[in-house]
Amino acid sequence: MEWITIFQVDAFTDEPFRGNPAGVCFLETERGEDWMQAVAREMNLSETAFLVPQDDGYRLRWFTPAAEVDLCGHATLASAHALRETGRASEDAELHFHTLSGLLTARRTGKTIELNFPSEPPSACSLPAGMAEALGVDPIWTGANRIDFLVEIKDAEELSRIQPDFRALKALTSRGVMVTCRSDREGFDFLSRFFAPAVGVDEDPVTGSAHCCLGPYWKEKTGRNIFTAFQASSRGGTVRVRVLDDRVILGGMAVTVLKGEVLCPKK
Length: 267
Prior knowledge:
Helix content: 10-25%
CATH architecture of the largest domain: Roll
CATH class of the largest domain: Alpha Beta
Low-confidence stretches: none
Shape: globular
CATH superfamily of the largest domain: Diaminopimelate Epimerase, Chain A, domain 1
Structural class: alpha+beta
Number of strands: 18
Strand content: 35-45%
Order of helices and strands: EEHEEEHEEEEHEEHHEEEHEEEE
Distance between the termini: 9 Å
């Protein structure tokens, strides 16, 4: 057996113990999926990222405590932060991540790390029977993209009151559901919450990948393409969003809060 260094990084925040915590594990060679899933379950965070050097960058995979996922923003932000903080990448380098969602990049702009992600706009559709009831909301618009459902509700008060029936919601989703509304907070354009019990995350504190859908949705509603968004979970976090033609730029900060070692079988 050997020991491999692992970090816990709070993403989309500049304050420790806020934002969304992610595990970040740097590997020299590929490791088995069962081991990565076991580590993610042990970390018990919404996602743990695993990076292996590849070509001009890294192969990047994300695991929740229950499953591997196709796209994750906060653990990518956490990975870019940890790469620079540990000296594995220079401050001005553009980082390349090879993922199940294609090539993703990250670069530093001032104090912010900007992620270049695919746009995932929603299309209007009805929710599965019972989903609105499981959320306890009165939707004013509903839709979905290839990953998640999207629900717009009338205001921040309704958003704050949501207490989902997670057992019912788990049976109705493949990954998760975003709930959004216009912001009542100064300095923010829209608010959201994100629920994903189907992949082992009842409520995700700050969901970068959700903003690949939320950004295009609010662009269509407002005619704007630059937003400052707040995900109104108990931890809370800020995501800066810039919508391009088929890409979305997600900006945020991150803070390392824990460093340790995890046991791994030798190759």
